[in-house]
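As noted in the main text, all predictions were made from sequence alone. Below is one such record, for AEDO dioxygenase.
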Amino acid sequence: MPRDNMASLIQRVARQARTTFRSPAGPAFGENLQRLQQLLDEVRAEDLRLSPRGPGPARGGAGPPVSYMHICETESFSMGVFLLRSGACIPLHDHPGMNGMLKVLYGTLRIACMDTLPPGCTDSVPQACTDALAAAHTDSVSPACTDSVPAGRCLRALFRSRQLCTPASPPCLLSPHTDNLHQIDAVDGPAAFLDILAPPYDPQHGRDCHYYRLLEEPPALPREVWLMETSQAADFWCGGEPYPGPRVCL
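Prediction:
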């Protein structure tokens, strides 16, 4: 059964998120962010009337690998729940100019985090990137190809960490400069996480989502790696589900 304070908890999370991200450059941002992290760490699946369930493995490709439950959105932040089928992956992507927080509600996630490195501190693009771009463009014109046409650029990144996260783990944080690129995989069953992004994605204001492919698997972390920008993979898409939890009013 849900806890008695579930409505006040998720409402307090939303109100604290609004306070925190209304002035991300203000002097109180760090203190507000810490308070938000503490509140988010308290949230459990039952607080949102969720239980460890499907979506299970897709059969014959039917059904989205990932679903999203919208909770609320303002100009300064958005909040919702992502549900991943067993074995599903949210591909490596970025959050331009955005802060973010992620709290696992059930299941286990493997999260790989990377930082984009400024162009001035990298070497010239290696032949491996040039070859990968050429191959991708060639494959994209083939009817048998399942990958999308690449955006056509390579960039250097610092592969900072790869970790397993469960409901017992503290919230994962990302900033415009740290852990801003990440890939999320559901491990050993379905998983769900509460997600806060600030400000929300908005292509008209330069906050569009970009996808990347890792061109080399580093033997140890942290390590600098090369990434190739791609379009959204053909086997990844996100469906929608109604949010069953307490209503949030802002």
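The beta strands are 66-73, 78-84, 89-93, 99-116, 154-165, 172-174, 181-198, 211-214, 223-230, 238-240. The domain at 63-119+151-240 is CATH 2.60.120.10 (Jelly Rolls). These features were considered when defining construct boundaries for the mutagenesis experiments described in Section 2.9.
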